[in-house]
């Protein structure tokens, strides 16, 4: 039975991790999906992805997270992977000013290639290296407010805010999607079809998913 | 190639013997990836060999390994590229190199002494192979064609530096102006000049692009084959930076692309064998005289350049060369999995279907294979063996990669299908 649990989810959300080379995208992914961190991780070539199923407001949500190569050269390949993404976490390195300055370029990139409704979050990674900090938290916060993004400082190394970052963005995505679903339901209801069917499964599935251990 | 027709024909032959079906499929696959040279010649003709002794062999019976008809074309092309130190006899298959060009360090006596060396791998160093290599390398002239064939199945590790240089220098480096080993020494000086000219200059004299390239290289050098501690040594890191930056500046069409850093490591690992003993993990660059380090750095640079010359479009914008090969890989794997060739089809098919159903794109997993030439997929101590074959393939390498990766993928699929079958039958 246990092997089935992971397959049971109600929503599948695709999230992309973007940002300059070396800011820690791959380690954020491995910390979140496998609770692993590797100081000597290799550069990502092309794209990689991993998944994790979690609970968002009582629903089982499977997050499919795409980790993309940071180097400019891979843009042509990786931009194809924005397709279908409902969320993007834009990562910079708090110890490297340039990676923060490039956030604008990444936003432009997203506007050109991603869905216009994509939920964005900005993460200032490597917060454990506070003594080497080159970007203040206020600067990050100010830019996030200006661009209308949610913002967190994270550390894949000591796991600070990694869960929270994904939980935040996935919850935000869920709200948008469920609002749409609600609107669709209302539309259906207006056409005099009762739309109560879906709620019945919820208790069962969430009960099962709690037992899942494969992904942790 | 008219794929459907060939497969249609196969349907009609269903009742014929397995032998002829195997041959038909192999021919189809050959046709499918029709090119100037058939990269899979060895794989394909080997099987044909076993079944058909008289088959495709057109070559001299002294060859260890049979060669398919396509090979004549390859060697003709090779002949044209040979200059200077390389002599052609009337026989189009006997490309020869004047043997004096070998590095004096690598005399056969030394080679013979090291035969007993305990750290050698088993397969590539069994005494018969060592004898064959020694015989090939000790004559007045080295017959490249035969050296290639020997090298294809693995070079004894201590002979690698010499054999790799011969494979790279003698046949196809002519376009780089390297004709023999003496010339290589001049190239080493040229390389050092480049490093002085491009690398050892103050930041203020570098353009913004150059600075950002250097930044990317500095970021990736420490992430190069990070599971082998040797590559983290300060001197190795410095050499890597020199090599990669010089290469990037001199190849502006692509510049540095992540993953190229990995491609330097096999050359470093092999050329250092001339000076450092024991396993790679126990090596220390501090045991090396500095002029030797710069020689090796220069050789790595030139050989990296040579290797990548045939793959420029793998690293230019949108990496069309890799996209093309990934497409070919998909075609080849689909063909094998869906053909009527039951032996192959039987096992990987369920996993193949699963991949299809899940919408898994080849670009998602095979891109990195082509980009880093499989270095990341196998343990580093096996990489040299794989590269023996790569270098023996020469210009045909890019297409040949498709076959290597297809066979890897099919093997994995077969294993996975096997596990899947066991699992399902257990549950029933």
From TrEMBL, chain A:
One example of a Gene Ontology biological process annotation? protein transport
- How does this protein lie in the membrane? Lipid-anchor
Coiled-coil segments: none
| GO molecular function list | GTP binding; GTPase activity
Q: Where in the cell is it found?
A: Endomembrane system
InterPro entries registered for this protein in UniProt: P-loop_NTPase, Rab_GTPases_membrane_traffic, Small_GTP-bd, Small_GTPase
SMART domains in UniProt: ARF, RAB, RAN, RAS, RHO
For this protein, the record's Pfam families field holds:
Ras (PF00071)
User: Which keywords belong to this entry?
Assistant: GTP-binding, Lipoprotein, Membrane, Nucleotide-binding, Prenylation, Protein transport, Transport
Parts of the chain that traverse the membrane:
none
Tell me which PROSITE patterns the record gives. RAB (PS51419), RAS (PS51421), RHO (PS51420)
According to the UniProt record, one GO cellular component term is: endomembrane system
Recorded family membership: Belongs to the small GTPase superfamily. Rab family.
**Under what name is this protein listed?**
Ras-related protein RABA2c
Q: What organism is the protein native to?
A: Hibiscus syriacus (Rose of Sharon)
For this protein's source organism, the top of the classification is: Eukaryota, Viridiplantae, Streptophyta, Embryophyta, Tracheophyta
TrEMBL record, chain B:
Q: Where is composition skewed (Low complexity) in this entry?
A: 87-101
Q: Which residues cross the membrane?
A: 400-423
What keywords are annotated for this sequence in UniProt? Membrane, Transmembrane, Transmembrane helix
Instruction: Classify the source by domain of life.
Output: Eukaryota
Looking up PROSITE patterns in the UniProt record yields: TBC_RABGAP
Compositional bias (Polar residues) at which positions?
Answer: 56-73
Quick one: where's region Disordered?
51-107
Q: Which GO terms describe its molecular function?
A: GTPase activator activity
Tell me what this protein is called. Ypt/Rab-GAP domain of gyp1p superfamily protein isoform 2
